[in-house]
Design goal:
Elements (H helix, E strand, L loop, with lengths): L3 H41 L82 H25 L4 E3 L4 E3 L7 H5 L1 H6 L3 H11 L11 E3 H19 L2 H15 L12 E3 H6 L8 E2 L7 H11 L3 H16 L12 E2 L11 E2 L6 H13 L6 H16 L1 E2 L5 H6 L4 E2 L1 E4 L4 E4 L1 E3 L5 H11 L3 H19 L9 E4 L14 H7 L8 E6 L7 H13 L3 H17 L26 H13 L11 E3 L5 E3 L4
Antiparallel strand pairs: 1-2, 3-4, 5-6, 7-10, 8-9, 10-11, 12-13, 13-14, 15-16
Length: 612
Amino acid sequence: MNSSADNSFSFFSRLRLFRRKMASSRHLRLVAGVACVLLVFFLVRPFDSPEILPTASRPHNSPPLAEPVLLQPSPSSRRKVTFKPSSFDWTKVEQHFPVELKHKLPTGAPKPQKPVQHDFSHYVHDPVTQNRQKAVRAVFERSWNSYKEHAWLRDELAPVSGVGKTTFGGWGATLVDALDTLWIMELWEDFYLAANAAAQLDWQNTTETAANMFETTIRHLGGLLSAYDLSGEKALLDKATELGDMLYMGFDTPNRMPGFWLNFEDAKRGVQVAGTNDPSASPCSLSLEFTRLTQLTGDQRYFDAITRITEFLERTQNESKIPGMWPKLINFREERVDGESGFTLGALADSLYEYLPKMHALLGGLSPQYEKMHRAAMDVVTKYMLFRPMLPAEEASKHDILFVGDAFAKPDRIDRVAEGQHLTCFTGGMFGLGGKLFDINEHVEIGERLARGCGWAYDAFPTGVMPEIFNMVPCGGSWDAPCPWNEEKWKAEGSKNLKKGFASARDTRYILRPEAIESIFLLYRMTGKEDLRDLAWQMFESIVNATETELAYSAISDVTVKGPTTKTDSMESFWLAETLKYFYLIFSPPSIINLDEYVFNTEAHPFLRPKP
């Protein structure tokens, strides 16, 4: 017979044993539950998502991709995207000037990069910002729905007359350009509708005899690659690869420098040559897209092609009439940069400079020549092209702003022209990105002043919208020197019909351009300064008020008018691809398209960056 102590011991021993069994049972149930969740996750998750690419798509030596916060549709929202090959296969066309592939993606782990995006760890998505985000999305949906109804599969919608336009080969430029915006805005049904149409485009089906190398690359190739990076839909990468093979034929010239146009018959016959007076931005702004295509497919041809252009730029950077920069127009056939005297960050040259820091980011810092070229070019820009507008004292105290002008090389001097372009508003973001990546704090400050300058210029006109081209009365001397108001100079040079600071508005159009909001968005994400969002909202409301039509939104002929504006019946694809995307993102949580995870091409298509 057991004593009470023995009975007590036995009871507690049995109790502990029972608890261990129950704990073990709960543990087993927990493990089983986790296993079920993981099983469902991998069954639902697309096999070729951006982070885990299939072996065939991701070469063993490609840099690891970032792990971004990705928007994903629910399983019920997913649709099958079917690839249909084009009726002509450009890989079967003979290369008449073949070369040995001597350039391959740099190998090794990407270098640690300085953070580009501000620390938003305490960010709150407040109701005001949510409502602004919804308002931008509503404007996008109105534009997109009118395109679907009146111009489906055409390049553009004419937003007044309600007809479709063919402007870029007839390959649905608006449709392809808007793919990633549809995804970012979580418009899943429309994304899959458009993705299926894009994956079945036939590049042979065109009434044109040639394709614009630059525009087709940034809009179509860039749009397809970005949509793939976001969605993981393999059919979109297949279609991008098919297009890349067609555009690769543009490099089939005696010196492997592409011309402005890819003439289809000339390419087949092997008689293409590089241009002798081509815009410098055209061949020199293909690098981001062709590099990303190589990263995703492992095919080194694309990277080899653009690296030959990079080597040309590096070799000639100090051979121009303003050493350190490249002129507006270049003789690519003879590979000379000393024949043109005009220099700009605007039309004809803009994205050449834009892509230098962006290529550094996309290649994980493994190609040092891009930083070297960017630093050298920006030294010249800050010396000869930045300027401050002369403003009355009260205005100047409120607005510490900069603009970028042009420079012309003369035999005995360099003339500086205080002419601003809407196109050059991208420079705020470029200075900011370079400043962040290369730890140049002054350049981040310059970038912010440039971005704010463009925002100020919007508010300076009766419509609240900035013109295409304008001239200003600049401060004398350096852009960072004191700038007192000079009434006599203003009376001699300023316009009596415009706000003080302006000399003229040479081209008064607004064509739904994105560059101003692009830089304001980027500088907001880089600095976290909330007033930039208020500036963006003011710009957005002005644009909508000035451009709205019965169907969508149109370019206007004159931003200086008071009252109703004249619509020019044009809505280029960048309205949906860039302008509204940047407006949407500035009012979105900063985790959406984080700048440390993505880099934008010049058409606002985000590409995944490699990570250390």
